[in-house]
């Protein structure tokens, strides 16, 4: 998702083969503190071959910039001039008329049961996820407004006072609509934080003592849950001087006893990395995927999936179910506010997927996925379910 300081990225450099990706990290043993797994250092980090064991919570040394992880260059002056000339920052009056129709139905959190996964959408990319005996928040933003945008269109779906004790927080990247300092200040400073490479320093400066930062394809464990950090195409910045100083990505959370897996995408454009994530993490039960903040497309296609791309990403992942997010909360782009949901539902239907597997929750809504039965869920059909073929044909390198 894109805050005022955020910009997307045009044309694609020469792709490199997916086979260059490093192998999946094996998760290390855990509690009470998160334990980082053994994982080979990514290309360009000065280490070749051999597994590197990461000590839990200890500071790590990172490069000064992660700009080499971008699959397309960030836009220049001409792109910003075009955006200003076209005035395509926000929906017009017709696009805003749908605000009263945005789905908002807060309700008490359902009871968590062993082996089950309970998800509650608090709005935007903020979820209350209960799995493996833990309560995990994703990109928690409970503030009424974030830097550079109007106030929320809809209130937060879960009152802070009604949250169960929070065991862990995962952060996808440092943009203000995903990393909200006022919200994090509400948490006890010994809450376990799982963050992208380079972001632990920001967290420790705010007093957090249990911070685990990971690179792509690394993992850590806390209690009965494994946290795998996986690639995305996005970028990072919180000021004019720190562009791409910290990494960005998504998370796969696995209940190690029951085997249930939830994928949280954060912010990302569409590309081959979804299939690679699915290959390395087969059997994803639920994919939390962004469907909003995509217009104008020439400006945002490289960093935000549109609704059709989100459905294709779900298929690429091999995920059994999809829950849309990243819409109906903040006015961040030019599409009409209700359009993301309508397009996501239509794309899901065109793909011939079971309607009950599209968890299009209202803000404040919850769904529970029960403990797995002995027989695994059948896989979804592949991307060929779309008559118009795959999106974009991009084979950008994600290392």
TrEMBL record:
Keywords: Hydrolase. Residues 1-51, 364-399 are annotated as: Disordered. The keyword Hydrolase applies. It comes from the Bacteria. Residues 17-28 have a biased composition (Low complexity). InterPro entries: Metallo-B-lactamas, RibonucZ/Hydroxyglut_hydro. Residues 373-382 have a biased composition (Pro residues). GO terms for cellular component: cytoplasm. SMART domains: Lactamase_B. Pfam families: Lactamase_B_2 (PF12706). The keyword Hydrolase applies. GO terms for molecular function: hydrolase activity. This is Metal-dependent hydrolase. It comes from Streptomyces lavendulae subsp. lavendulae.
């Amino acid at each position: 998702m894109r805050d005022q300081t955020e910009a997307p990225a045009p044309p694609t450099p020469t792709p490199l083969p997916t086979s260059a990706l490093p192998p999946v990290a094996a998760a290390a043993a855990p509690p009470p503190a998160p334990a980082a797994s053994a994982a080979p250092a990514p290309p360009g980090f000065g280490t070749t071959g051999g597994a590197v064991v990461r000590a839990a919570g200890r500071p790590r040394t990172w490069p000064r910039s992660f700009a080499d992880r971008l699959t397309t260059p960030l836009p220049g002056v001409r792109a910003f001039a075009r955006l200003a000339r076209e005035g395509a920052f926000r929906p017009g009056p017709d696009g805003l008329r749908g605000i009263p129709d945005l789905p908002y139905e807060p309700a008490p959190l359902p009871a968590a049961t062993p082996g089950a996964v309970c998800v509650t959408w608090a709005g935007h990319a903020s979820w209350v996820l209960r799995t493996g005996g833990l309560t995990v928040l994703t990109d928690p933003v409970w503030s009424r407004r974030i830097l550079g945008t109007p106030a929320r269109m809809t209130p937060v779906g879960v009152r802070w006072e009604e949250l169960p004790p929070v065991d862990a927080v995962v952060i996808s990247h440092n943009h203000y609509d995903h990393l909200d300092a006022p919200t994090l200040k509400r948490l006890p400073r010994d809450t376990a934080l799982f963050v992208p490479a380079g972001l632990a320093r920001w967290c420790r400066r705010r007093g957090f003592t249990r911070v685990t930062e990971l690179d792509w394809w690394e993992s850590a464990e806390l209690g009965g849950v494994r946290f795998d950090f996986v690639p995305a195409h996005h970028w990072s910045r919180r000021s004019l001087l720190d562009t791409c100083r910290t990494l960005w990505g998504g998370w796969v959370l696995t209940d190690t006893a029951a085997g249930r897996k939830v994928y949280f995408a954060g912010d990302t454009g569409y590309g081959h990395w979804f299939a690679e994530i699915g290959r390395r993490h087969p059997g994803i039960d639920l994919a939390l995927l962004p469907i909003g903040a995509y217009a104008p497309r020439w400006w945002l296609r490289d960093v935000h999936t549109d609704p059709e791309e989100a459905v294709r990403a779900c298929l690429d992942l091999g995920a059994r179910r999809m829950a849309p997010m990243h819409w109906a909360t903040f006015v961040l782009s030019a599409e009409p506010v209700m359009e993301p949901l309508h397009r996501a539902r239509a794309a899901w239907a065109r793909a011939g997927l079971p309607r009950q597997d599209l968890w299009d929750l209202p803000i404040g809504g919850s769904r529970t996925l029960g403990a797995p039965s002995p027989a695994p869920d059948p896989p979804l059909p592949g991307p060929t379910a779309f008559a118009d073929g795959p999106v974009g044909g991009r084979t950008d390198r994600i290392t």
